Amino acid sequence: MGSQNGLALHWKILIGLVLGVAVGLAINTMWDASTWNSMGVGDPASWVDGASGVEANADASVVAHGARFVRNLNGFIGDLFMRGLRFIAVPIVIFSLIVGASSLNDLSKLSRIGGKTIGIYLVTTAIAISVGLLFANIIKPGNFVSEETRDGFVAQFGDQASAKIEAAQAPDIWDTVLNIVPKNPFNAIAQGNMLQVVFASLLVGIALTLIKREKAVVVISFFDAMTDVIIKVVEIVLMIAPYAVFALIVDQIAELGLDILGSLAVYCLVVVAGLATMAFVVYPIGFKLLGGLSYGRFFKAISPAQLLAFSSASSSATLPVTMECCEQRLGIKEEVSAFVLPIGATINMDGTALYQGVAAVFIAQLYGMDLTIADQLTIVLTATLASIGTAGVPGVGMIMLVIVLESVGIPLEGIAVILGVDRILDMCRTSCNVTGDCMVCAVVASSEGAIETPEQVAARLALPMDEDPRDEGRLGK
Ligand code: ASP
Questions:
Q1: Shortest CA distance to 249 belongs to which of 473, 6, 26, 7?
Q2: Minimum mean pLDDT range among 78-92, 159-173, 311-325, 353-367
Q3: Sequence ranges of the domains in the chain
Q4: Which of 153, 247, 347, 362 is deepest in the core (most CB within 10 A)?
C-alpha cells in the first residue's frame, strides 16, 4: 500500500475527495428538478432511481439518459467499494487476532493490554464530551438560530425526527456485556457481530497457546498465511478507493441542503472546532504523555483510514483499512492492533460523544433551557454510554442522542433542527472516531514495545510480503 506507481495512496484519496466535493457542489447548486425537466424528464425522482419511471418520462433526451447512466455508475462504484470493505472486515479480524493472541506468551499481558485499552478509551471519550460541552457553553450556538428558524425545521423534519426517536433504545449494561459471548460463533461471523467475533477469535488464539506446540504451529501457520491473503485483498480493494471516495462524496454533497447549512453554521463550526481540538491538541498531548511516538508519523500513516472514514461515515466499514494502516504503515503488532481496533470501531466513539455533547447543549439553548453543572455531568455520563452503544455505521450517533437528551429532559423535537446537517457532521465525527481508535492503539502498542521504528517499517515495506521479518516471532522459527 504505497507509492509504487507514483503518488502515495493517501494523496490519491485526498484528490478524489477534493474533486468529489467540487463536483458535488457544482451539481448541488446548478442541477435541480428544472434541469431534468428541460431534458424532457417530467418525474426526476422515479427517472433517476429506476425503470419504474421510464414510461412516465418517455420524452427524456439522450443527455438525460447519459446523466442517469453516469449517476447510476457513480452509485455502483461507491456501493461496490463499501461491499468490498464489509467483505473483508470479519475475516481480517479473525485471522489476525488468532495469530496475534497465539503469539502472546502469557495471559497477564492480554489482561494488561485489555485494561489499558478500555481505560484509555473511556478517558478520551469523557475528554471529548467535555471539550464539546466547553465549546458549546462558551460559544452558545443556540443563540444564533431564531425561534422561527427552529420551528421551521421542526415542521420540515419533524416526521423524520420521530422515526429516529422511536428507533432509540437505551442499552442494558448486563445484556451488553453478556452479548459479547456468542451462542454460536458461526452465527457471530455471519452476522458480523464484531465484539463476538473478537471474543471467539481471542479464545481460539489463547487456546492455541495451551495445546501442543507442534499442533498449534500448523493452525497458526494457516491463519498467518490467511492474514497475508486478506491484507492482499485489502490492497486490491484499496485500488479503487480514490474513485470510490469521489463517488461517495459527490453523492453526499450533491444531496446536501446547503441553505440549511447556512442557518446552522455556528452549530456546525462548534462541532468541527471540537473535533479538530481532539485531533490536533488532545491526541498529540496524549502521545506526548503516554506514547513517545511522533504525531506527524502517526497522522501520515493513518490518513487513508481518516479519509475513508470521512467519505463513508462508518468506522466499521473503515476497519480493514484502519487495521492495514496501523499494522503495515505504523508497524504495530497484530496482538495489539487486531484486539484494540475492532473493539474501538465498535465502542470507542470520541467524535460521536463530542457531537452528542454539543448537540444536547445546542438544543437546550434553542429551547431556552439552562443546564446546571449536574445536568452537564449527567450529559458526560450518558453521552459516554450512548457513544459506546452507537454502532459504527452512518447516522446512529444521532439516534443515540435521544438517550442523552432524555437524561436531562431536553425536548426531543430539537432533533428535527439538526437532522438536515447530520450527514456532514457524521462524516467529520467518524473521522475523529477512527483517529481516536488509532491513537489508543498506537499508545498501547508503544507502551508494550509492540511497534516498529520508522526505519524498521521502511525496511520491511521494501521487502516482498513473504519475507516479513515479523513472521519469525509468530511461528516460533
Ligand atoms: N457514523 C459514526 C461511526 O461510524 C457513528 C455515528 O456517530 O453516527 O463511527
A1: 26
A2: 159-173
A3: 105-203+257-475
A4: 362
Whether the CB-CB separation of 261 and 268 falls below 8 Å is answered with yes
Question: Domain 105-203+257-475: what homologous superfamily?
Answer: Sodium:dicarboxylate symporter (1.10.3860.10)
Counting runs of H as helices and runs of E as strands, what totals does the chain give?
24, 0
Q: DSSP label at 293? A: S
Percent of the chain with pLDDT over 90: 60
Ligand 1 centroid vs 317 CA: distance in angstroms? 10
Q: Which amino acid is located at 167 in the chain?
A: A
Q: How far is the centre of ligand 1, averaged over its atoms, from the C-alpha of 313 (Å)? A: 6
Query: Residue 172: pLDDT above 70?
Result: yes
Residue nearest to ligand 1 atom 1, measured at CA = 394
**Quick check: CB of 313 below 6 Å from ligand 1?**
yes
At 474, is the pLDDT very low, low, confident or very high (cuts 50, 70, 90)? Answer: low
- Report CA(152)–ligand 1 centroid distance (Å): 27
Mean pLDDT, the chain, integer:
89
Mutate to test the pocket of ligand 1, among 355, 387, 393 (most ligand atoms within 8 A of CB): 393
- pLDDT for 54 equals 59
pTM comes to: 0.88
